[in-house]
Amino acid sequence: MKSAQLPISILDPTPAQTTFTNVKTALSKRNYKDTVSLASIAVVDIQRLQLMTILDHRAYALGMQGSFDAAVKDAEEMIVYGPEMAAGYLRLGYILDLQGKQSRAAKVYQEALEKVSKEDSAYAQLLTGKKVAMEKAERRVDFLATLPLELGDDIIMQMPDKTMAICLDVSTTWRKRVSGCHLAWVNVSNDDDTAHAIIARALPYIAEHIKDLVITTTDPSVWLRYLYYMERGHFRTIEALEVTNAATKLINTNMIMALTSALWQMRNTLTRLEFCFHSYLIPITLTDVLFYCTHLESLVFNAWDSLELILGDLELLGGPHKRLVDLEMTISLTTSAAVEPLLKRLPKLRRLSLNESMPDVLDVVYRTCPNLEIFGYNPSFGIPDLDDLEGDSNGPGLRAIYTANGGYGTPTAKFLPFLRRDMKTLQTVYANLSLTEDQVKNDEPYEDPYPAYRDLNFERLTSLTFWPDKFGIIQTLILRAVSSCTTLNHIAAVATPNVPALVDTLITLPPLEEMELSHITADDGGPSLVRLFQLYASLSESKQKFRTFWFRYCNSITDDVLDAIAGIKSLKEVTLTGLVKVSARGLKSFLKRLSKIGVTEVKLVQMAVVDNSVIELLGDMEGLETVILESLSEITDEGIKGMVDGAKGLRSLTLDKCKTISKDTVSYVQRRVGHVEIIEQ
Question: Which CATH architecture has domain 14-139?
Fold first, then answer.
């Protein structure tokens, strides 16, 4: 039997109305003494009624959120203000019923029947409430207590963290079963403050099982509760801790001793730590973290201060940190003078990501990090983790290096030494080698680096992303370095001034698997690209590897280029963005030819030639699973419906800033496609 849902307001206003009527009657009879007395009573009754109404509303809302302790407190306060009124008892009984506490609910109803007048309009509800509660209590079966242990654990592990925490309050049996399901509490993460509060109350029972914890709370009392149990050693098996920006705002200088004590208590098991401070003058330093977290292997530290301000006194470490292999810092400024003493104390580093770094930091990293395998210099994106590296290492040396995605280039005089030193081990190069800020201001080209780097020759490179300078000097060097690299399978060229030279190199190499051409204003590369893709298409199907391309704002991409690509049978994923040299006719011909190949994903962005007739062709593509349409002003409801009706295997559709699509069509699509994402901004 489900709980009968009480209305949000269950208060009888009759007593207050009666008292108010009595005041009016006394006043009309000019009985001023009774008027004053009755008015005083009316004021109290009306204030009490209003307060109880507000408490009732809040208790109901808290119960609907699962915040039962707070809901019970409000209901009990209602009883204090109106012990002779049914409202508080009814609300308390209802909240207890939601928790499955039928025996206690029956006692509440019995207490009410002894105190509330039988003339009360809600008296019958009290009788019914007691009867229902007693019936439920008599036939209640604790399914969790009767289930086999393994099956019960399987059910518990399917619950969200918040639900599991609520279950801890149901009964002693449930608390033992839920807290005893160790695997259910291994990972705890929740963005809901209410859920965090419930989980924080459960820490005495679950903290010892938590291995991966993310704290996002904005409630100071919840944060202090986490800190309390950390400081007292309850988190005995914790391995990873993330404190997000929302929670770090609660950290002040007065609690640094408690925080460092907590880190010390967790030092033997804590191997990954992430602090995100979106503030200045943060209260904890990097030295504090490294000193108290002796077994730390991975540290992510974000702050608005400079490295110099957050570094602390490294001399307190007494020597090098023996465990840290992964350091990622996003701070306002990193200089060589600040970072060098830090890196010298981290000899085990294998992954390093530094943002807002000055160019001379590159020299420091080159000299002081002999074991580095992944290095990000001012990357504007998340670089891969160590676990993402593929294959075995080919001896000491970098396996992946990353620079910023766009903006001014990285000085080649400081960056190219990494490429030459580690050319036998590098597998991924993501290099913005366009002109630096000073070169742009002075319109100065790079000096030709080839004489000094004529021996640069990559042996294991699988992925190359590069921004060459507008004069083409750096592109020439890079293409020579990959000219004999048989492992290359992905290339991305951004703003290259010479597409034909790029193609001339690629034609001599084994077929690529992926290609990205972006922001290329030169329009003379079309014939060369046609030649490359016709070569790929001429290969036997067993040797065809080309499966993914992204063409963005590239004037060298024409109808002829798309026609050549359409002959490649291995193609799976297609992205076309802002291609002004592609016609509606050419795009339609391309999509028609793809219909039998087995392409699984198509993304069209800012393509002026895309209208209903184009996207309806997507519905005819066999095997198409994912479609992403962004900033397309010429498509309408009719085209979307036609595409969805035709695409029998479509599993995911994203409509991003397609303002011409109505809500009715969105609902129509959602009934036919498994996953639909609508992005309006």
Answer: Alpha Horseshoe (1.25)
User: Where in the chain do CATH 3.80.10.10 domains reside?
Assistant: 583-681
Can you tell me the distance from the alpha carbon of 36 to that of 27, in angstroms, rounded to the nearest whole number? 9
Q: Is domain 583-681 classified as CATH 3.60.40.10? A: no
- Rounded to the nearest 10 degrees, what angle do helices 172-180 and 149-157 cross at? 80
| Model confidence pLDDT, tens digit, residues 67-78 | 888 899 999 998
- Both tokens of 112, joined, read 């009410």
Phi and psi at residue 416, in whole multiples of 5°? -60, -30
3-state secondary structure of 132: helix
The encoded tokens of residue 642 equal 């036609």
33: which strand partners?
none
Global model pTM greater than 0.85? no
Q: Tens digits of per-residue pLDDT, 260-297? A: 999 999 999 999 999 999 888 889 999 999 999 999 99
Lowest mean pLDDT among 197-206, 234-243, 586-595, 628-637: 197-206
Rounded-to-integer distance, Cα 634 and Cα 673, Å: 22
Between the two ends of the chain, the Cα-to-Cα distance in Å is 45
Alpha carbon distances (Å) from 573 to 515, 528, 614, 626: 11, 22, 17, 9
Structure tokens that stand for 515 in this block: 């290609």
Cα 45–chain centre separation: 51
The Cα-based distances of 435 to 410, 420, 568, 659 in angstroms read 8, 20, 36, 38
> Over the Cα atoms of the chain, what is R_g?
34
How far is it between the farthest Cα atoms of the chain?
A: 113
Outline which parts of the chain fall under CATH 1.25.40.10. Answer: 14-139
Question: How open is the CA angle 305-307-309, to the nearest 5 degrees?
Answer: 60
Q: Which positions ≥6 away from 132 have C-beta within 8 Å?
A: 1, 4, 97
Burial class (CB in 10 A: 0-12, 13-18, 19+), 668: middle
Token digits of residue 225: 């509760």
How far apart, in whole angstroms, are the C-alpha atoms of residue 472 and residue 25? 98
- The conformation of residue 255, written as its DSSP 8-state character, comes to G
Alpha carbons 38 and 20: distance in angstroms, whole number:
8
Instruction: Round the average pLDDT of the chain to a whole number and report it.
Output: 89
pLDDT at 336 over 80: yes
- Decide: 562 and 590 in contact? Cβ < 8 Å: yes
Question: E strand or H helix at 187, and its extent?
Answer: strand 187-189
